[in-house]
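Today's session is about reading a structure prediction critically. Students often jump straight to the picture, but the first step is always the sequence itself: look for stretches that repeat, for charged clusters, for runs of hydrophobic residues. Only then move on to the predicted structure, which in these notes is written as discrete structure tokens rather than atom positions. Here is the chain we will use throughout the hour.
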Amino acid sequence: MTPSEISLSGTWELRLDPDGEGAVGWPDAETDGTITLPGTTDEYGYGERPEETPREHLTRTSRYEGPAWYRRTIPVPDSWAGKRVTLTVERSRETTLWVDGERIGSRVCLSTPHVYDVTDALEPGDCEVTIRVDNDGDSMDRRGVRRSHAVAEHTQTNWNGVVGDLRLEATDPVRIEDLRAIPDGDGFALEITTVNDAGDDREGHLRVAAESTNADESHHPDPIERRVELPAGETTHQLRYALGPNALSWDEFSPAVYELRAALDSGEYADEIETTAGLREVAVEGTQLAIGDRTVFLRGRTDCCVFPETGYPPTSTAEWVEHMEVAKAHGLNHYRFHSWCPPEAAFEAADRVGIYLLPECSQWDARGSLVEDDDYDYYRREADRILAAYGNHPSFVAFGLGNENQGDEERMADLVARCRDRDGRRLYVSGANDFLSAPRPGPQDDLFITANVPEDPDAPEESDLVPVRGTGHVNDRPPSTTTDYREEIAPYDLPVVGHEIGQFQIYPDFDEARKYTGVLEARNLERFERSLADHHMAGDDRRFQAASGALAATCYREEIEAALRTPGFGGFQLLDLADFPGQGTALVGVRDAFMDSKGVIEPHEWRRFCAPQVPLLLMDRYAWTDGETFEAEAKLANYGPAGVEDAAAEWAITDGERKVAGGTLPDRTVDQGELAPLGTIEASLSEVDAPAALEIDLEVSGTDRRTSYPIWVYPDRSDDPLADVNVAVRHRFDDRARELLAEGRRVLVVPDEGALRYSLRGSFQPDFWNYELFKQNGKPGTLGIACDPEHPLFESFPTAGHADWQWWHLLRHARPIVVDDAPAAFEPTVRAIDTIYRNHKLALFAETAVGDGRLAVCSLDLEPDHPTVDQFRESLAAYLESPAFDPEPAITTGVLESLLGGEDERGAYGDDANGPWIDG
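Below is the predicted structure for this chain, in token form.
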């Protein structure tokens, strides 16, 4: 028998109570209006309209914080007399419930439904239900909560309302209270809790049936039945349900979900309960995870609860399925929910799609995690509720206490151990990236989620940190595909997972601002768009997004492959696949805040380096000369469903349509969970028509996986082409440079450090996270370059319109020149893309006619002894001597003197709205 339910979705009367005066039984004339629940005051325009235009995050169209009272009259059927009745409020803030003026109680939990027993207060006929929702009470003001993504303005916002299921439910006095399904070999160990409120001891008949719901092959095992004693009060019945030899297991490749139905018949009364479960056992094996008999490499994203249309997470399974299928299309298999826990619908969707979930308590406390007794009790209760509410879901493979916590380590360990004792169906961790200055796994942790590890893990005091993500090597080491983290993780005997990797900023397409038609407005993007126009670059945003996005994708690939190249690594968690529109506006995703594509990289391209099986090519550099023999080692990271027999790497080096070299390496068997060498590739480059940009294609037979890598081949040279050209090379725009220009000469200024009045430090990679949040670290904030690859400057230096690895040596120590004082129409030939916080027009190569002379200014780093730099100098020299070097008189001598006047005259330029100057 299905329990009787009454949906409470619909129209409710609303009264706002900003002063907390109380409003039970308020007169009808004192309502502020009506609202439809599920919904929020933001969605219906209640509260104040914020006037500020912050750059740091999106802006709510309406904002109300404080108690709000929701009232509705509900007809209760006569058939409910004598039944137990509960009222469920899913996904709200702190709630207090009254029925016909009688206070029932309060619930404080941001992560699970609030369930009230209203049996004694409810009678057949019309009853008045009043719910007080307070999004500004003491529980919301807890330090760890306020910063968490459960309520923060930077993500889902601190809305007021009810956004999930809202219902009354009636059950018989003899009923099933809970069904707990514990995977056990080919079946489930069941713990079924019954309650007998009938007033006397009874007997009953318990029947449990299972049905697979989403597997390619259906499975209907025989049900089990048992006579049970039903003494007064609560009883837990232990049963084992063997599903038989055809039982289906659950993981990312075959997410077979079973729907379990338990029915209780006690004669006069009957009840039924349903739950979803899966045959999934998760464990730690050495330094990696295992689901069943498969080694798992976590390829995750950090979900920060960014849903800009509503400001809150979906509570429908279909929306979450769509969300997660986008992630799965990008090769991801894991979600970490950063300092929040999603609703039931997210777990249901992950069960279906095959995603490993790690939700967290609503805690982000870097100063005093669990130090206060009240905090410990709050998070203990929240953890208990999360485990009880969602514990049966097979996708729920790990659980954490929050993000970047630091506080009472003993209590943190105690709470982790307590969670494991209560529910051993998953892995546990005290937090993600805890103890920032001295990161270490907790004594009870199954995983070590961290961005860095101590250089000396045994040091008694804080040690220098080394990253287990690309914040170290992508920008600071010459490019190769050999970096891994094996030395960094060697001291640890548990899985190490890279925390919030990536974070490469991408310039926005400001058309996105017009997509914000819900409860949030992108006033931050609108401010940045006005700033770009103020700097005479209106309309350049799309070009900047394409160029910075292409570079970001390149850097993401290197960071992900570095993780895959590391034997025994636990995996990584991106921050993020999508943009984070807060904390300074961190546009770090290859998809926007709506999870829509930016056109930067397509899912199938992303899966070339982020998938269960990834072919890898290990080479010590990207740039070669035509006198060398190319060498690289091919590998296969096989975290797919099974081993690969007869895996042979087929490779080819191509120059456009022309094949330069190719071959097939000897085949071998690659076990599941193995990072396996496939052999060494060698090819002479003597036949390459250098300079050339080549592709190396790599495909592994026995899989559907193929990939490709760029390499650049240049002529082997030892001369300095700039030494033999009829161009005067100067290091300052000094009197001699002006004299040469007056004589009609061609002049190249390669400014030394002291020759530039306004310039920034060089960087290859795009800015980390965003400039505003980390500018105190002295980073330049730039986002790569933009150029026209067809410009004759690049006649002998093959390039796209954005930076790639061949630009690394030229950019790492370049000095982008601020040319805001140049005429509005002035276009640098090679420009650095500035942070949205300044939007300076930045030149790395610029040219102009000065009288009868022609001037080029190059602040790229031309000093390194490296083939890419040598080749750029060759292409530069040829261009400067050619008729193509014939620029318009774009900049006057006065402006040139201002731009290149030397740092001795440097002063403040603009204010904080434009960003401070970075020099050094």
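Discussion point for the tutorial: Residues 721-905 form one domain.
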